[in-house]
Amino acid sequence: MLKNKKILLGVTGGIAAYKAAELTREFVKRGASVKVIMTANASKFITPLTMQTLSGNPVYTEMFSLVESPEISHISLADWADVFVIAPATANIIGKAAAGIGDDLLSTTIMAARMPVLFCPAMNSNMYAGPIVGENIGRLRRSGYRILEPESGELACGVEGAGRLPSAGEILDEVERMLTPQDLAGEKILVTAGPTREPFDPVRFITNYSSGKMGYALAEAACKRGACVLLVSGPAALTCPRGVELVGVSSAVEMKEAVMRRLQDSTVIIKAAAVADYRPAQTSGAKIKKEAGPLRLALERNPDIIAEIGRKKGRRILVGFAMETENLIGNARIKLKEKNMDLIVANDLSRPGSGFQNDTNIVKILDRRGGIEELPIMEKSAVANHILDRVLALKAREPEKKQGRAKKNVRRP
Ligand code: CTP
Asked: Is residue 93 lining ligand 1, measured as CB closer than 6 Å?
């Protein structure tokens, strides 16, 4: 996502300035070009040489300098970048930007910036909570600047409160969001992910190999594209993507309840969870002790969640998955039709690089018109974006559908 993007990083003079080094490394690691502007005070906390070494580019510190390339000015730096991140942003730079003061290279470059600008405030919690900083931040927001709220916790000055610079990962997420077209804004997407657990005593359960990676990738991609995302997840060792609302469930019955409760409120439902089809008919309240002979477990059917959604979905878009080890297309087509899905993402579990646990997937997307789109092996995040593109394409056809219905209703004289 950040590959080949040009990021201008403004570093100001707070103790969190040292974290700008790690941030620069992370940007570069993801393939971005980074140029750094440092204020005079920032250079007291971290050296320009460090930032130059990590960014691989000269560091800009002076407004008027003969040594730094003569064509470099606040204007050309502002023109160069796709996105401008000020991290950490002190109360001073926030105040100067809000008041229109340009008395050094960083503050004048902010004024000349036409690209998206992100301020990451970091300071003592009393300064942050005070009325002046609050007013200035409000002013920047109203002028279209993005603000990444600082975290709460122990601050370098020894006090506890809000004022800590968010982690490099969180800043990166925010920058990616700023560079991503918000083409899913207004959509409410419900994604299910992960396995379910069907217990038969307090210490044992039946489950499957699902890691939840595909569902989490879908939730993250949809959120970055501006959708409001609810993730209903079975037990998975993954972190909920920032900005996504997580509802944790364990069994298929719990997943069904969580999903059906929120169905009315969703415009798109994507069922990437690997739901157990059966659960033990009886759950023992105490641990089952081993005996000499074999143990027989009776299983009963779990609810088919997607089939029920299919019956109640109305105009909502429903995307399901089919995990198969044989007759991929045939089985997927039956599921698509019988469960009233709009798209089904079929993955052949027998192919290396596909299915559970992997970071990649190899899928075919089938639609109701009989179309089959075969995708090459891809990162799950890329597969997720592709599925979301298909959802958008279906959405774009909605007026066409409505027109078609209207035409059918026209009485001919
Ligand atoms: N699914 C569901 N509820 C179930 C089982 C599956 O909602 N009890 C959903 C899955 O989330 C997936 C789709 O149905 O989107 C297909 O799941 P899959 O396991 O491939 O197929 P099943 O319908 O369970 O059929 P079978 O196990 O017989 O292949």
From this structure: no
